[in-house]
Amino acid sequence: MEKLLSIYRTIDGLSHEEAQYHVSKFKKIIYPKKKLILKEGTTEDYLYFIDSGIIRFFVNKTHPTEPSRQITFSFIAENMFGSAYDSFITRSPCSYNVETVQETTVYRIHFDDLQELYARSPVGNYMGRISAEHLYVRKTQREISLLVNSAEERYLNLVKTYPNFISDIPLKHIASYIGITPQALSRIRKRIALT
User: Fold this and answer.
1) Could you tell me which CATH class the domain 2-121 is placed in?
2) Helix axis angle, 16-24 relative to 122-148, nearest 10°?
3) Backbone angles phi, psi at 62, to 5 degrees
4) What is the pLDDT along the chain (195 residues), one digit of tens a residue?
5) Which residues form the Cyclic nucleotide-binding domain (predicted)?
6) CB of 99 within 8 A of CB of 33?
């Protein structure tokens, strides 16, 4: 909880008591590796702060003539806020899944508790806005990367973003995230290792 509390401590004019109150609304949960936190078709009730570990977001792609497969489109890791945010804010069922990559410790806040914090103080609104802004920036950067970067550049950006975790993410999820096959990813990794 110390990492989350330290974020609140950076807010000018926020008393220790108010910071403690906000943080008290978050509940600690430890999820095992490969735990499905949110299944498509259900509504996201939580905003998460990742204390340790990695979470991935993926869709199940099905096609009548091909085997179904999972396509990873996002990761969140230590010191990041995350959620199936579109489902969270619209209160509608999610069209994708959220799963841990490794054992992951989160502090999560329920939608209703977050609304109470928004109503209670400007700090609640501030933290909500900051969380939403971070999620938006990550989403936009991902979309731009898919449009303008090569697969190798997308891989290098992922390594740069998650230097402490890249070795913990299975290659099939990394390949899916950057939009290539695991075999193509192996070739990229070999080429990078030779340079």
Assistant:
1) mainly beta
2) 60
3) -120, 145
4) 788 878 777 777 777 788 888 889 999 999 999 999 999 999 999 999 999 999 999 999 887 888 888 999 999 999 888 899 999 999 999 999 999 999 999 999 999 999 998 888 777 777 777 778 888 888 898 899 989 999 999 999 989 988 888 888 999 999 999 999 999 999 999 988 877
5) 10-117
6) no
Instruction: Give the domain ranges of the chain.
Output: 2-121
Residue 192 neighbours by CB distance under 10 Å: 12
* Cα–Cα distance for residue pair 132/82, rounded to 1 Å: 9
**Phi, psi angles (nearest 5°) of residue 173:** -75, -40
Residue the block writes with tokens 């108010």: 18
Q: What are phi and psi of 191, to 5 degrees?
A: -60, -40
Helix H or strand E encompassing 70: strand 66-77
